[in-house]
């Protein structure tokens, strides 16, 4: 595992992208162990990404380091990325700790620990020579394709939000790319938060006050070129803009 961690770190530092891992993870547990080891090398973990393929599927996650979390940014330099895949998401910031414990947290306990909800961008990227070029476990080991998280302003009344009814339109350079309602493949994002509190963050001691959890794409991934301007228009959560050049 150590060699894999070193290879992923070196790819970030040198921008010499990997054609593959010499030893692919044998299972999800090993992929997560690699994720965690890389994250600890990269610095403080201040956010998480979580998603699921379907409303019934087991969620998946990745830790996000402070260096790739941007509060309220509407511009990022393109040289931070190899590829630029924009996703409009919904993110939750926690007001207090939910430490790992034996008794599972209930949905209400998790919601009571939430401080605010935000529209957000995730930019997906890869440390491999092509996006989607590897097997699922290799991409899981590579921070599940995380590039950056941009956290928008808190919405006024987050408890009134119904993510399953929230519309999102994604435009790139004035062209509508996606129009959707409740477009997250995972369905209810609160289910993902509960899983994170009970399972996903155990290796880091649970969720911590101030951390942000972004709950998967509402729009799918739209790949953009440097210099493009992306706009996400939410039904009730406002509008986010992002230029990467």
From TrEMBL:
<protein>
    <submittedName>
        <fullName>2-keto-4-pentenoate hydratase</fullName>
    </submittedName>
</protein>
<dbReference type="InterPro" id="IPR011234">
    <property type="entry name" value="Fumarylacetoacetase-like_C"/>
</dbReference>
<keyword id="KW-0456">Lyase</keyword>
<dbReference type="GO" id="GO:0005737">
    <property type="term" value="C:cytoplasm"/>
</dbReference>
<dbReference type="InterPro" id="IPR050772">
    <property type="entry name" value="Hydratase-Decarb/MhpD_sf"/>
</dbReference>
<feature type="domain" description="Fumarylacetoacetase-like C-terminal">
    <location>
        <begin position="75"/>
        <end position="244"/>
    </location>
</feature>
<dbReference type="Pfam" id="PF01557">
    <property type="entry name" value="FAA_hydrolase"/>
</dbReference>
<dbReference type="InterPro" id="IPR036663">
    <property type="entry name" value="Fumarylacetoacetase_C_sf"/>
</dbReference>
<dbReference type="GO" id="GO:0008684">
    <property type="term" value="F:2-oxopent-4-enoate hydratase activity"/>
</dbReference>
